[in-house]
């Protein structure tokens, strides 16, 4: 009975980690896409020196964190594919499975740690988007001011 429980318990845990990793990978891709959009928006419009410095600093902080997230995604996928998914059912039987259970548990901790780091990146990205929005509002206000003064000149 214990042996059958082990052959059921371990594959389900590995499958759960696989789903967590898929979710992590999707978040990394989404954040990368949003970050690239924000960088493009920054390049498209100019702001004052302070906002440009703030935006530049945020971009500088986010880039290495995203690169690290990509590296972690790759390393997690490699571990899942080359280690965890290679175990046979015989290796998953209770007496022999202690090493596998430990590896799955440690893998769970690594994925959770990576997810927490993604939340930090998301907060920085939110700050970046806020700064870009402020810059857009300032640019729009300046454009409206110029348009209003031209209209007054015509009248």
Alpha-beta classification:
mainly alpha
Which of globular, elongated, flat, extended, rod-shaped describes the shape?
rod-shaped
Mean pLDDT: 87
Classify the oligomer.
single chain
Distance between the termini: 92 Å
Let me know the largest β-sheet: none
Low-confidence stretches: 1-7
The strand count comes to 0
Classify the helix fraction into a percent range.
over 70%
Which radius of gyration do the C-alpha atoms yield?
24 Å
**Strand/helix succession:** HHH
Structure description:
- 86% of the residues lie in helices and 0% in strands.
- It is mostly helical.
- It has one domain (2-149).
- It is rod-shaped, with a radius of gyration of 24 Å.
Features:
3 helices; mainly alpha; 86% helix; 0% strand; 155 residues; single chain
Short description:
Helix content is 86%, strand content 0%.
Secondary-structure blueprint:
Blueprint: H1 2-44, H2 49-82, H3 98-154
């Amino acid at each position: 009975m214990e042996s059958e429980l082990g052959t059921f318990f371990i594959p389900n845990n590995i499958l759960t980690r696989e789903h967590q990793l898929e979710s992590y990978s999707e978040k990394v891709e989404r954040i990368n896409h949003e970050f690239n959009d924000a960088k493009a928006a920054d390049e498209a419009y100019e702001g004052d020196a302070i906002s440009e410095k703030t935006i530049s600093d945020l971009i500088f902080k986010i880039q290495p964190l995203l690169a690290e997230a990509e590296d972690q995604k790759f390393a997690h996928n490699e571990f899942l594919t080359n280690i965890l998914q290679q175990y046979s059912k015989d290796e998953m039987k209770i007496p022999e499975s202690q090493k596998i259970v430990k590896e799955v548990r440690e893998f769970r901790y690594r994925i959770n740690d990576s997810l927490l780091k993604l939340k930090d990146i998301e907060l920085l990205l939110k700050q970046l988007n806020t700064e870009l929005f402020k810059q857009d509002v300032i640019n729009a206000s300046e454009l409206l001011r110029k348009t209003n003064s031209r209209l007054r000149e015509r009248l």
